[in-house]
Amino acid sequence: MRSVVITGASRGLGLASATHMYQQGWTVVAAMRSIEAGLEKLREATGAKVGDPRLIGVKLDLTDIASIPTTARAIEVAVGAPDVIVHNAGVAAAGVAEETPDEVWQQLFATNLFGPVALTKALLPAMRAKGSGRIVAISSMGAIRGMPIISAYSASKGALERWAEALSQEVAPFGLGVTILVTGSFNTDILTEQTPDYGNHHGPYGTMYESIHTAGKAAVSKALPPSRFALALAEAAEDTAPIVRRTVGSDASALSFISRVLPRTLVHHIIRMAMKIPSQGALSRASLAKLSKT
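-> structure tokens emitted (294 positions)
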């Protein structure tokens, strides 16, 4: 029976994916911070009974690198070398680059990049020995093109993609493959008020925050349910090529397309207009106009 490790399996895309994969007959290793609470949610969603050997919880804190080898050993004890690792767990933060605190940048990179790298490194020896397996990195539209107001998140997801691409070249000779799954807008905690906002809405970027917030409401209203993502993940788990890059959601597909075929400057302006960001120099001119009247 095939096994899949899904990080961040207690909510959002991870919960939906773990539920769907279980229902498809996979043995699901749900890696999460709180095993008891997470397994309770998964049992409710899947109908699994306590002690079901196809639904296993392991404790995982991606920000605690020293604890990750212990998590990897628990995974190997439970299922051996996993057939698929899904790096789904992630955190986001709002705020322009200038106003996002250094420690927040560090937290996002720790969770979105360094933790997945460490978990993969710990599980690779067993997967190489097995001679098969797939690593699925869950990325974001923010990695297609650096997006304003989520600078740190975009940077961390962009770095995750570059690592996944490099990794695919390194592990392919051993029979392993990598899939990058680029998500669009889904109805999860990342699109709610639960996402920390470090922006000074009354500071120099205040006008920009207000404009993007207005545009963001439209995106949230069109966000897809996590169950749609779970279907795409199940397809990605069946990939066999050394490297596959998939987009999930029409907004992610559209941004990926225009970023490939249009000049960078034009893409910049399309994003600016879609997110209602003032044009180049607009805020400087406004400031100068106010000064001239005083």
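The first strand starts at residue 3 and ends at 7.
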